[in-house]
Amino acid sequence: MENLKKLFSDTHQLTRIIILLAVVLVLAVISFGGYYYYDRFYTSQPNAADVSLEAAEQAVRDDPQNADKRLSLAEVYMVNRRFDDAIAQALQVQQADPNDVRVDFILGVSYALSNKPQDAIEPLQKFIDSQKDSDMAGLNRRLVSAYYYQGSSYLAINQPENAVAPLEEAVTLNSTDADALYKLGLAYEGIKEYDQALIALERATAFVPDFTEAYDAMASTYEAMGLKDETNYARGMVAYSKKDYDAARATLTEVTQALPTFSSAFTGLGLTYEALGDLQSAKAAYQQATTLNPNDFTASTGLQRVEAGLKK
Question: Which domains does the chain have, with CATH numbers?
Answer without folding.
Answer: 4-226 (1.25.40.10), 244-312 (1.25.40.10)
